[in-house]
Amino acid sequence: xxxxxxxxxxxxxxxxxxxxxxxxxxxxxxxxxxxxxxxxxxxxxxxxxxxxxxxxxxxxxxxxxxxxxxxxxxxxxxxxxxxxxxxxxxxxxxxxxxxxxxxxxxxxxxxxxxxxxxxxxxxxxxxxxxxxxxxxxxxxxxxxxxxxxxxxxxxxxxxxxxxxxxxxxxxxxxxxxxxx
Length: 180
Hints:
Number of strands: 7
Radius of gyration: 22 Å
Structural class: alpha/beta
Largest sheet: 4 strands, mixed
Shape: elongated
Order of helices and strands: EEEEHHHEEEHHH
Strand content: 15-25%
């Protein structure tokens, strides 16, 4: 597998030849390492031109990836976790009968990429511990979102219609959740 190094600005780009159809660009966390995979027939000159065209995108992506790595997760106190667990129970008591669903249990834990998840087959719902540092309306949005999956497992039109029906302002809540 041939390997070479090219540069974008002063950032090295690892170039690997693979059995691929197109030139593919990856910016990997946490250091923002840049990888370009190219088909066997493509010259390094073509790869260089491609990198030049993509320079602005690469530098933006690298900045985003390394900034994300530096972000310190909020420190969440035991008290906040206790309040969040109590809030989940009272919100579930309100929403489950309204929606005609029943979760088999809620778990609060560290989650890297999602605010919540639902295993439809078991009815188990997991909520991101970091919701403890968010406003209650954001927690309510995630909870209703996950309960909706017990009625509709995918994020299709029916799912969005159910969200609109139960929580008409869910889009604003979602925006607020992802803002800070």
